[in-house]
Each structure stands twice: as structure tokens, then as C-alpha cells.
Amino acid sequence: MKKMIKKASKIIAKASSKRFKKTVESVQTISLNKQYLKTVPACNVTFRLPKQAVPDAKTVAIVGDFNNWNLNQTRMKKLKNGDFKTTLKLNRDREYKFRYLIDNNRWENDWVADKYVPNVYGDDDSVVIV
């Protein structure tokens, strides 16, 4: 009986560990990743839009203060898992408003932006603080 209980405990611990790891991985895939540079007052910010937000998207562009809201300047790369990703070097000590443009016809905010601010179109813009 003790052996069965010990074996069941190991199986439960292993399953729980896998669920925890999967949860952590899914959170990591939707986060803004900031890497501050030591030699210049800048930060490499990786933006990642998860497949869950745009399951059928063909293209995604990130549009914001950092590219003068140019719709075509910053296309994101589609990853094998269906997420879209890009990294931008942004000046430190600033806030940048941005949004994602999906297939040139639909806007999406970042799910884990540092904050949101209303825009003139009646929606909110995502904000990243660096």
C-alpha cells in the first residue's frame, strides 16, 4: 500500500509540475520583454502577440509613437507556433503608445501592456514604459 501511495504521489507531482511549466510558458509568450542596455540609454523591447489573440492572422504590424504611427514600417515576424514577434530599440525614460494592426484592418491592444490610455478614436492605446 505504501508503494502505491508513493507512486501516486510522484505521478501527481509530475502532472502538477507539467501544468505549472505550461502555465509559465504561456505567460512568458504573451509578455513584453525589456532588456536595458548598459552602454547607451536605450532598451531592447520584445513585443509578442500570442496566437490566441490573432488565431487566423496573416500579417501583424506594430504601430506607435516609436514609428510615427506608420502602418507599414514595422511588420512582425510570424513564429512557427503562430505568435507574432518583433524587437525594437527604444529610448529609456519614456512612455510609448502603440497598438497592433492585424491584416491591415483590425486593431488589437497588448494583453500585458504596462498601462492603457484613451485615444481620440474612442478606444485605448497600449503603453510600454522604458
Q: Give the topology string: H per helix, E per strand.
A: HEEEEEEEEE
Give the termini distance in whole angstroms. Answer: 57 Å
What is the overall number of helices? 1
Secondary-structure class: alpha+beta
In the CATH hierarchy, what is the superfamily of the largest domain? Answer: Immunoglobulins
Could you say which overall geometry the principal axes of the C-alpha atoms support? Answer: globular
Q: Based on DSSP secondary structure assignment, what is the total number of beta strands? A: 9
- CATH fold title of the largest domain: Immunoglobulin-like
Tell me the fraction of residues in β-strands, as a range: 35-45%
State the low-pLDDT regions, or none.
Answer: 1-8, 16-28
Largest sheet: 5 strands, antiparallel
Rounded to an integer, what's the Rg over CA atoms? 19 Å
* CATH A-level architecture of the largest domain: Sandwich
